[in-house]
Amino acid sequence: MARVSSGCCLLSFRLLFQGKFKVFLDNITSCRDPEPPLARKPALLYDYKIYNQNGHNYISGTSAVLREVSFINLGLKTYNVDSSSGRRQLQFAAEKLTCRSLGGQAVLVLTNINYTRSKCLLTKGNSTFKEIDVNKIAHRVPAWHAAGSLLNRLHLVDRGHTVFCYEVSTTVRDLD
User: Fold this and answer.
1) Distance between CA 145 and CA 113 in Å, rounded?
2) How many CA atoms lie within 13 A of 62 on its CB side?
């Protein structure tokens, strides 16, 4: 596992897969038992749908920011999941992403959430996001993918509580 610190965040990754591949979106669920625990009053709400169009999986939906939320502690972890045992092996981790980091900016742009860049605050209001293509995103990041089942966990912490945590299950198929 390689670990890279860029001043803004910590990245850990395992280079496993290079070549032609396709990512299929299987499911999205709220995290069970996030650490730290969920905030008692929700700060972010999402309503989304997964659909298939012309052989591509997409996510579209809406989000509601119910109060200002600090966007300085976003985490992303990707695990390879053994299909027979369910055992997870960490493949990639990015911690303490902000609205100014590349990963944080990508999340904000993809979900179309309003925020103030100078303070890294999500601002109150509603937004719509359309046609997020997980396969396209996977082809634009470093080659840390492993063929098989992956679990991608995205979580945001504010004021000592988790305000957003979703797990995106995908399957990566080798096309070579």
Assistant:
1) 27
2) 5
Q: Which residues of 67-99 are buried (b: 16+ CB within 10 A; e: fewer)?
A: eebbbbbbbbbbbbbeeeeeebeebbbbbebbb
130 contacts: CB under 8 Å, gap ≥ 6: 60
Cα separation, 155 vs 164, in Å, equals: 5
Q: What is the value of pTM for the model shown?
A: 0.83
pLDDT along the chain (176 residues), means of 10: 44 52 90 92 92 90 96 92 90 91 90 94 96 85 71 94 94 84
Q: What counts of helices (H) and strands (E) characterise the chain?
A: 2, 13
**In whole angstroms, what is the distance from residue 118 CA to residue 92 CA?**
28
